[in-house]
Design a protein that fits this description.
This protein is α/β, with parallel strands linked by helices and about 240 residues long. The protein has 7 helices and 10 strands. The protein has one domain: P-loop containing nucleotide triphosphate hydrolases (Rossmann fold). Helix content is about 35%, strand content about 25%. The protein has a 6-stranded mixed beta sheet with strand order 6-7-8-3-9-10, sandwiched between helices.
Length: about 240
C-alpha cells in the first residue's frame, strides 16, 4: 500500500462544546487518501461533507481523533504552522470561483504565490501563464472575471488552486453553479490535471454523473462513512490517463 497523503483516525467534530446545545456532527471517521487519488465525496445535505472538507482543508479544527497530512500531525500544530501547511499542501476550488473582479485572470492566478511568498517571482508568473494556457485560456489572461463565462471563470479558479503545485486539491461542488456543458468542461480539466500531474483530488458533488467518473466514492450519511468503494480502476499518478470523459 502506498504511503498515505492524508489519514484520519477516529475523527470527531462537535459544535458548542460544553453548552446545553452541544452537537456532534462527525462521529469517529477513519479515512485514508493515497497520493494521486481522485475521490468523490457524496452524501445528502447535512451529512457533514462541508465540515469534513473544512477540517481536511485546515480551516476548522477537529474536536477529537487524529489527522496526519503529508506525515504532519495536524493536531499538534499552532495556527501559524497550520497556515504554512495549508499553503504548501492544499489547493481549493469552490462552487463560487471567488475571483477578484478588479484583477485579470492572470493576476487572480498569481494571488496565492503573492500571499505565500510576498512577491510574484518571474518563474511563478510563467507558471501561472502556463496553467492558464493548459486550461484553454491562453487568449484570456488579461480579461477580468466579468468578461469570462462561468466555465472559464471556474477554469481560472482551477489554475489558481494549482499555482503552488499542491499535492492535494479540495473541490467543493466545483461545477454546482454551472450548466451541464460547462460542468463537463470543468470536470474534464480536473481529470486531465490529475492524469498529467498526479495531483490528488477530493471532489464534493451532488451530481451522480460526476461521482461515477471519479476513481473512488466516499459517502457520508449522518456524520459517518456509509460507503467507501472503488468506482473504476485508478490511473497511475502522472502516468496513463483515465478513460476519456
Amino acid at each position: 500500500m502506498s504511503e498515505a497523503l492524508l489519514e484520519l483516525r477516529g475523527l470527531r467534530k462537535s459544535y458548542n462544546v460544553g453548552l446545553p446545545n452541544e452537537a456532534e456532527v462527525l462521529h469517529g471517521l477513519d479515512l485514508r487518501l493515497a497520493a494521486g487519488e481522485f475521490v468523490a465525496l457524496v452524501g445528502p445535505s447535512g451529512s457533514g461533507k462541508s465540515t469534513l472538507l473544512n477540517i481536511v482543508g485546515l480551516l476548522e479544527r477537529m474536536t477529537a481523533g487524529s489527522y496526519r497530512l503529508q506525515g504532519e500531525d495536524v493536531g499538534a500544530l499552532d495556527d501559524q504552522a497550520l497556515t504554512l501547511l495549508r499553503r504548501r499542501a492544499l489547493g481549493f476550488v469552490f462552487q463560487f470561483h471567488h475571483l477578484l473582479p478588479a484583477f485579470s485572470a492572470l493576476e487572480n492566478v498569481t494571488l496565492p504565490a503573492l500571499m505565500a511568498e510576498g512577491r510574484i517571482r518571474r518563474e511563478r508568473l510563467q507558471q501561472a501563464r502556463d496553467l492558464l494556457a493548459a486550461v484553454g485560456l491562453a487568449q484570456a489572461m488579461d480579461k477580468r472575471p466579468s468578461q469570462l463565462s462561468g466555465g472559464m471563470q471556474q477554469r481560472v479558479a482551477i489554475a489558481r488552486a494549482l499555482v503552488l503545485q499542491p499535492p492535494l486539491v479540495l473541490a467543493d461542488e466545483p461545477t454546482g453553479n454551472l450548466d451541464t456543458a460547462s460542468s463537463d468542461e470543468v470536470f474534464r480539466e480536473l481529470r486531465r490535471i490529475h492524469a498529467e500531474h498526479g495531483t490528488a483530488f477530493v471532489v464534493v458533488t451532488h451530481d451522480p454523473r460526476l461521482a461515477a467518473r471519479c476513481d473512488r466514492l466516499v459517502e457520508l450519511v449522518d456524520g459517518r462513512i456509509a460507503r467507501d468503494q472503488a468506482v473504476r480502476p485508478p490511473a497511475p499518478p502522472g502516468g496513463g490517463a483515465s478513460p476519456p470523459d
